[in-house]
Design brief:
36% of the residues lie in helices and 10% in strands. The protein is built from eight helices and five strands; from the N terminus they run αβαβααβαβαβαα. Strands 3-2-1-4-5 form a five-stranded parallel β-sheet, sandwiched between helices. The chain is globular and about 55 Å long.
Length: 213
């Protein structure tokens, strides 16, 4: 046991809840515009988990190029959410400075407040964007459209918007304000995929003890 364990403290963030109206007021956004949330991937995880990338060579390239595209797409408002593991593992890539510069130059681009309740993010978001993360199956199950840039374990399910190439990817972004809500059939498919992944496909591993010796 760590001898300093009793003296160690855990920082717990007090989460806040915001409505779309609240966020638009804070960011001085037009309430009638859609809000699109980009969920940045963990930079060193899952780069080649599903084979060769089809758009950009790795997570970093996808993230940088996506942020460059949205600079000119002003028909919606953009939220950027960094992956929690970036702060946890203190990776060398500092997206805070990149996002801060975008916020200074472009009023339609803002970062997600670190202490914002995930439920609020879901309610505020009209369209989600991910490289290959679990957002691509979670958000459609709640009836939210999701653009998925790369192949993932769920992209064959038919409930995502999956660009064929870089040109197609940019075109989807340009017309992103015209995207309609996901239909119930696709939503149900996403729910089934989520159930299979989180519940049905789980296998108990008897090699891992239930209690520490």
């Amino acid at each position: 046991q760590d001898p300093n364990f009793k003296n160690k403290s855990i920082n717990i963030k007090k989460l806040i809840s915001l409505t779309k109206k609240d966020l638009c007021k804070i960011n001085k956004w037009d309430y009638n515009k859609k809000i699109v949330t980009i969920f940045l991937p963990y930079m060193i995880d899952g780069n080649f988990q599903h084979g060769r990338k089809k758009l950009y060579k790795d997570n970093f390239s996808w993230s940088i190029n996506t942020l460059n595209i949205i600079k000119k797409v002003k028909n919606v408002n953009w939220l950027i959410r960094q992956h929690p593991n970036e702060a946890r593992y203190k990776t060398k890539i500092n997206f805070n400075s990149i996002i801060n510069e975008l916020e200074k130059e472009f009023i339609h681009i803002k970062s997600v407040p670190e202490n914002l309740n995930p439920t609020s993010i879901k309610m505020i978001t009209d369209v989600a964007v991910t490289s290959h993360g679990s957002v691509g199956v979670e958000y459609p199950s709640f009836g939210k459209q999701c653009i998925v840039g790369e192949n993932s374990y769920y992209t064959h399910g038919g409930f995502n918007i999956c660009p064929r190439n870089k040109i197609d990817y940019k075109k989807i972004f340009i017309k992103i304000n015209y995207l309609k809500k996901i239909d119930k059939v696709k939503q149900d498919k996403a729910k089934i995929a989520l159930f299979i992944f989180l519940i049905f496909a789980r296998v108990k591993n008897t090699f891992i003890p239930e209690h520490l010796p």
